[in-house]
Design brief:
Elements lengths: L6 E2 L8 E2 L1 H12 L3 H11 L6 E2 L1 H11 L5 H13 L7 E2 L5
Parallel strand pairs: 1-2
Antiparallel strand pairs: 3-4
Length: 97
Amino acid sequence: MIGPYKIYSDNGKGVDYTSDAKMINFVLEKFSKKRQTLSDALCCEDYEDTGILELSQVREAILSVDEDLDDHILDWMLFYVYSRSEHVDQMEYKVLI
């Protein structure tokens, strides 16, 4: 009913386990040269300069920087922002930058 999923944790093990540390390193390597572009894409979506966007806007901004981004990496990036935001409807995207 839910579909394919991965568990992100520093303590988990198994086939569906990917550590946060591993994913952070991968994203940092992938976006290190594109950091300013990602920042600009996220800020351009932020009309009120609040640092808060809807999940769909965060997703669109990330994909505008790297259209060929693996779904697994995109899901983790969205999970990272979601888990550090106070509200379900408003993503505090600055934690990603």
